[in-house]
Design brief:
Blueprint lengths: L9 H10 L8 H7 L7 H4 L24 E2 L8 E2 L4 E4 L2 E2 L5 E7 L5 E3 L4 E4 L5 E11 L6 E12 L4 E2 L7 E2 L4 E4 L2 E2 L5 E7 L5 E3 L4 E4 L5 E13 L2 E14 L38 H4 L26 H31 L2
Parallel strand pairs: 2-9, 11-18
Antiparallel strand pairs: 1-4, 3-7, 5-8, 6-7, 8-9, 10-13, 12-16, 14-17, 15-16, 17-18
């Protein structure tokens, strides 16, 4: 084995020595002399230029960027009732004030979102809606936005009882009354507590009917249910129903009292007969009889009859007119005779 030292190329020496089966020993100074020195880079050695612009930065428009809006409304909005007017606000802190728009999903049918954040309308269907609202603030070219997902549930209306007290029933007498609760669609009814009087039944439409079998006072609870869109709402109310005793029957063996006769207290009064019109005297009774003898007897008062005769009714009227006619004829005759005596020499 030979030891070789050279100042030539290290690569060639290494290849030659290895080919000859020898061991290459290198002196540290020779290796250091053969290693090339690094050349300094122009970019690394050049100092940074403070006036150079950053190509990755956006161009300066002279308008300050707006801060992104910050939502203050929680994601779960107040629930709405189907068929009932609804309104709620979506708000966000922003300067200038933000505008709002639904950018994903949809509001329940019948509701709409205004640019100032008001959700309003009348829900048309029962629904659980999820939607995304985007709030935008700032001037054109420097807008800032924020998004939030909201949930709004539309539920069926809750029944509201309108019936307070039930009318009194009577044992043995057919009975019918209605229990009513407001709501859309129409509610159905069921007995959920207590019991109705024997003989009475509560229908699904809220009608209580039947014939009570016995008197008494009972209490019971009724539930009204509104089902809409696969969901249901309920309300309950307690009621009290009074059943009066049966009407008293007449005592056995005693006939019912006869009605009082007419003309007696408590009975019907007979109408008084209408007075007949007086008969008109005939011409023969009112004509003047010439040369009639003078009658100086006493004048019979009107309405007077013969002794022992009674006056009354139609006979009295006829007799009265007869007497009046005779008296009139006598007076006329006396007047004629008096006139003749005065004229005679």
């Amino acid at each position: 084995m030979r030891r070789t030292r050279t100042t030539g190329g290290l690569a060639g020496l290494a290849a030659l020595t290895l080919a000859m089966g020898g061991v290459l020993l290198l002196d540290a100074p020779a290796v250091a002399a053969e290693a090339p020195e690094p050349t300094p880079s122009a970019e690394a050695s050049a100092p940074p230029d403070p006036g150079a612009a950053d190509a990755s930065a956006p161009p300066d428009t002279g308008v300050a960027d707006a801060d992104a809006p910050v939502f203050t409304t929680p994601p779960q909005l107040p629930s709405a009732l189907r068929g009932v007017s609804y309104a709620t606000w979506i708000a966000a802190d922003a300067d200038p004030p933000a505008t709002f728009a639904v950018t994903s999903g949809a509001l329940p049918a019948g509701l709409a979102l205004s640019p100032d954040g008001l959700i309003s309308g009348t829900p048309a269907t029962v629904d659980d809606a999820t939607f995304t609202v985007t709030a935008t603030t700032g001037e054109e070219g420097s807008e800032a936005t924020a998004e939030r997902q909201f949930t709004l549930a539309v539920t069926p209306q809750v029944p509201v009882f309108a019936t307070g007290e039930l009318p009194t029933a009577r044992a043995g007498t057919p009975y019918e009354a209605a229990i009513v609760a407001f709501g859309t669609p129409t509610a159905s009814y069921a007995l959920v507590g207590g019991a109705l009087p024997p003989g009475l039944t509560l229908r699904a439409n809220g009608t209580i009917d039947g014939t009570p079998a016995a008197s008494g006072t009972v209490g019971f609870t009724v539930r009204a249910t509104i089902t809409d869109g696969g969901e249901s709402t309920t309300a309950t109310r307690d009621f009290t129903l009074v059943v009066a005793p049966r009407a008293a029957a007449p005592a056995p063996g005693r006939p019912p009292a006869a009605p009082p006769p007419a003309g007696t207290p408590g009975g019907e009064q007979e109408p008084a007969p209408a007075p007949e019109a007086p008969a008109t005297p005939s011409p023969s009774q009112t004509s003047t009889a010439p040369d009639a003898p003078d009658t100086d007897g006493p004048t019979i008062p009107a309405g007077a009859g013969e002794p022992g005769e009674s006056t009354g009714g139609d006979e009295d009227l006829t007799w009265l007119w007869l007497v009046a006619g005779v008296a009139l004829v006598g007076a006329v005759a006396a007047t004629v005779l008096l006139v003749r005596r005065i004229r005679s020499p």
